[in-house]
Specification:
Length: 231
């Protein structure tokens, strides 16, 4: 059995397949969060720069020290088209980790997007660029470039454990990460969830199914209603 590299930079890892990424891109992040057991959603502090931005792709994980982007530059030299840079910036708000120059390079490299548990800058230029960027906010301060970190090791970003190669799905609601090994098994449940929600909305619009059928039973189970009692 091949032992994983103990170097701070891991060059090889198994990515979620392009076929799964393409199929997953058709679903909202909320659908994946639900069928994944209501887990995998990054903290709401990590938001898209524009609501129309969407991401689907394998995670290329980066751990940096607060306010230093040396390892992000290294990761950009290694990442493949379609990868999503997912950066554990320790939720630092004192300096930006990436701006217009780096994001323009990411777009030219064919990356699928950037998820920053840290800050960006050059907001107006990034909005014009249109490249998908999710971050905790903007800060005009620039970063340093001299502190080591790690590439393609497990990280924690937005309160979620993320491994390189995991599936990243992001939209206006935020970012969800699904374990690579689990991603394929969620596609069918996701499709069924979409169909069920569409049917529920159709029922509401028709006026026939506005109140959830499970509500009374749930209220009884919670002790709000007595046995046999209804709203």
């Amino acid at each position: 059995m091949t032992q994983p590299s103990l170097s701070d930079i891991r060059r090889d890892f198994e990515r979620v397949s392009p076929d799964i990424v393409q199929k997953a891109s058709q679903f909202a992040s909320s659908i994946f969060a639900d069928v994944a057991g209501r887990r995998g959603a990054l903290d709401a502090r990590i938001q898209p720069l524009a609501r129309e931005m969407r991401i689907a792709g394998p995670a290329f994980t980066i751990e940096v020290r607060p306010g230093d982007n040396l390892m992000i530059h290294a990761a950009m030299a290694m990442a493949k088209p379609g990868d999503v840079l997912v950066i554990d910036g320790k939720a630092d708000r004192t300096a930006a980790l990436m701006g217009a120059i780096m994001m323009t390079a990411c777009k030219q490299l064919g990356l699928a997007g950037v998820v920053l548990d840290g800050c960006h800058r050059d907001t107006e230029e990034l909005l014009e660029l249109g490249f998908p960027v999710y971050s905790i906010g903007a800060n005009p301060n620039g970063p340093s470039k001299n502190v080591p970190g790690r590439i393609n090791w497990p990280i924690n970003a937005g309160g979620v454990a993320i491994n390189p190669g995991d599936l990243v799905v992001a939209d206006a609601d935020g970012v969800v990460v699904v374990e690579r090994e689990k991603a394929a098994s969620l596609l069918e449940p996701a499709a069924k969830k979409v169909a069920a929600e569409r049917a529920r909305i159709d029922g509401i619009l028709s006026g026939k199914n506005i109140r959830p059928g499970w509500l009374d039973e749930a209220l009884r189970a919670a002790g709000v209603l007595k046995e046999g009692e209804t709203l």
